[in-house]
Amino acid sequence: MDASSTMDPELIAALFENGLMGVEVPEAHGGAGASFTAMCLVIEELAKVDPAVAACVDVHSTVVNNTVGFWGSEEIKAKYLPLLATEAMGSFCLSEAGSGSDAFSLTTRAVESADGSYYTLTGQKLWITNAGHAGVFLVFANVDPSKGYKGITCFVVERDSEGLTVGPHEDKLGIRASSTCPVILEGVKVPADRILGKVGE
């Protein structure tokens, strides 16, 4: 897979079928309800065979699933955790061209609608793991740049959202089968109830 820079779709399906994408997700939401230590052991065993697969599962599970589980409302958890545990890969969209290690300087904007029912996201994320296969994206955007990092907010964005585009796969030196792509947001409207935590937090 590394030679062709592609992840076998049948392998991705098998990861879900064998419960490896929902190890820490509570049983009530379709997961195994196991511990973080158990998740680490799964990733370690996968890495012995293929680091690209381990990276895919790691970001999906320990970053995306846990972020939704820790900060999602009950409604968000009820809707997205079962999907993430059984069929939809997750992607964590934080890095940008000018804000890799300095995440606080991200420039992606989220503008609240006049009636407060939705936000419009505009910007570009780079080097996003799992982007090529993801069905659910956690996108970080600033709702009020005048407040600096205190304006940064995380939104749950679905892949079929109008205005969301996944760019071409990055041609990396290693772990090539792990999908790493830019994610472009051009006026993507996201309901206000898909914010993780609170605005600016």
Automatic annotation (TrEMBL):
Top-level enzyme category: oxidoreductase
Acyl-CoA dehydrogenase/oxidase N-terminal domain sequence ranges: 2-86
Gene Ontology CC terms: mitochondrion
Domain of life: Eukaryota
Record's keyword terms, sorted: FAD, Fatty acid metabolism, Flavoprotein, Lipid metabolism, Oxidoreductase
GO molecular function annotations of the record: flavin adenine dinucleotide binding; short-chain 2-methyl fatty acyl-CoA dehydrogenase activity
Domain spans labelled Acyl-CoA oxidase/dehydrogenase middle: 91-188
E.C. no: 1.3.8.5
Keyword Ribosomal protein included in the entry's annotation: no
Annotated catalysed reactions: 2-methylbutanoyl-CoA + oxidized [electron-transfer flavoprotein] + H(+) = (2E)-2-methylbut-2-enoyl-CoA + reduced [electron-transfer flavoprotein]
A Pfam family hit: Acyl-CoA_dh_N
Family stated for the protein in its record: Belongs to the acyl-CoA dehydrogenase family.
Name listed for the protein in its UniProt record: short-chain 2-methylacyl-CoA dehydrogenase
Species of provenance: Alexandrium andersonii
